[in-house]
Known about the structure:
The chain has helices spanning 7-15, 54-67, 74-82, 109-122, 126-138, 156-168, 184-189, 217-227, 255-270, 289-301, 305-318, 320-326, 328-340, 353-358, 389-398. It is mostly helical. The protein has one domain (7-398): Glycosyltransferase (Alpha/alpha barrel), CATH 1.50.10. The radius of gyration is 19 Å and the shape is globular.
Amino acid sequence: MNVRRSAAVLAATAVIGAAFAPVALAAESPSPSPSPTKELPTGLFGSADPTYDGVWRQSLALLAQHTVGAQPAPEAVDWLVGQQCESGAFAPYRADTSVKCDAKTPVDTNSTAAALQALEALGGHGAAVDKAVAWLKSVQNKDGGWGYAAGGASDTNSTSVVIGALAAAGEKPQEVLSKGGESPYRALLALSVPCDEDGGGAFAFQPDKKGKLAANADATAAGVLGSLGKGFVTKSGKTAAGDAACADGGDKVTPEDGARNGSAYLASAVAKDGYLKSALAGAEDQPDHGNTADAVVALAAAGRTAEAGTSLAWLEKNSADWAAQNGPAAYAQLIFAAHATGTDPRDFGGADLVKQLGATGPEGWNATAADTAAPSKEKEQDENGGVSVWWMVGVGLVGGIGVGFLISTRNKKQPKP
């Protein structure tokens, strides 16, 4: 997610030969608009080309609607269910679902984990959920983690978004052991930067070519949630007691230690400005709205309510243009951040995030259980699906930056994740 990203980023980096963001984990520039002659599915959220993030943005949008008690349009749910392959896996987007998935279908862990979280929350999709869980377990790496693509090297964003999905489905991630006998938490903690190194306590996306771990805020937001066994939707945890020293004890470090270490790093990263900055070359001084939203969720889940509240307040004042530009996954990320901090998403800096998200979906459906009036026909003119393809390619080229889990978005810099 973000991760942590979004998953879409990971898909792009896989295509260009780079290691895989979802999850998904968010790009700061709009994604290319679909060709005027390309007809998009009626049940799909967003108007941008869904090739790289269709399932990701749909999953986040439906999960966000469910979280706030809004009733998703049936055709939107049906579209997501119809994207699943017989194996249980999901690809970022299948334009023709009448064609069966085969070895060339680009299924991935981030799309599958995001869809799993959404379908489990919506209920009534037990068979689809069970198949997705079984597929994710079948592609677990020997070290206990997951990469974006089956068999790919484990990364923090993918491992975290899968942990969250398995937990949401009622599994006990610590008991989901690989063929090598390793748990997902062991793989995740192996990606935590040692306390005595620069960025100690943070999570890296993956080791570099020399095996060194570099702190990455996007991966850290995902890693904190993964260490806590949390998915995209969570609430504030027990208030953290001060800034405890970074816990470093090799194999003795627990998932709770990892979450505490990572959240302390995030708290430090947002302390000055209230937001995270972009990791993209040439944009280091620019705010990263998507990763900031993911950080709010992670900080709140780890009990750092003060820092989470400060960053949320910044988002309330500064995220409107970003969300309108990036569409459904961006609105979902903000809703998750509001939910995690107990903030009303229908009055988010004066904006109704629920209505804005609904306007990007089929017929602008905004009904809730208490409001079954006819769907609004309002549509966002500048909304996009959420992830810039060019941004994703850039991530693959610079390498080592990491990706958003709540895949990021997805809309995030991921798959993504």
